[in-house]
Amino acid sequence: MALKQDMNFNGTWQLVNSHNLQPFLKACGVSFMRRNLAKAVSPLVYITQDGDKFTIRTDTVHRSITQNFCIGVAFKCCLPWEAEECLMIARWEGNKLVVQLVDDEEKRGPVFVRYLEDDQLVLEQEMDNVLCKRYFKKK
């Protein structure tokens, strides 16, 4: 397992900007009503990182989702727009934290990529070649 000690995602992050969220959610099969609800909320993300171990909690006024995982170890979690759990896995790609469905070489499910850029946390979300970027500032 590739430990990225130089990457420190720890902190509380507030959404400041989103690009292409609606088309991404549509590609994921999210209903029109839920897509409109999603664009109206401003999530607060709490990240605790200890080497390759992560806890990522995303809070909105409607829901709180917590992911606990270690790089290279499959884990169960809920996608923000679904109620049932799916099996995910995380890995490092350079200085980027990549999370996707287990056994998803055919890219059937969304891919989530987090990385630090200047003073922001960037979350790239991709599904069916539709890319959404969300930018967060540390509180």
From TrEMBL:
Location of the Lipocalin/cytosolic fatty-acid binding domain = 10-138
* Domain of life according to the entry: Eukaryota
Q: Which InterPro entries match?
A: Calycin (IPR012674), Fatty_acid-bd (IPR000463), ILBP (IPR031259), Lipocln_cytosolic_FA-bd_dom (IPR000566)
In its UniProt record, a GO molecular function of this protein is: lipid binding
PANTHER family registered for this protein in UniProt: FATTY ACID BINDING PROTEIN
Q: What family does the Swiss-Prot or TrEMBL record give for this protein?
A: Belongs to the calycin superfamily. Fatty-acid binding protein (FABP) family.
**What protein name does the entry list?**
Putative fatty acid-binding protein, adipocyte-like
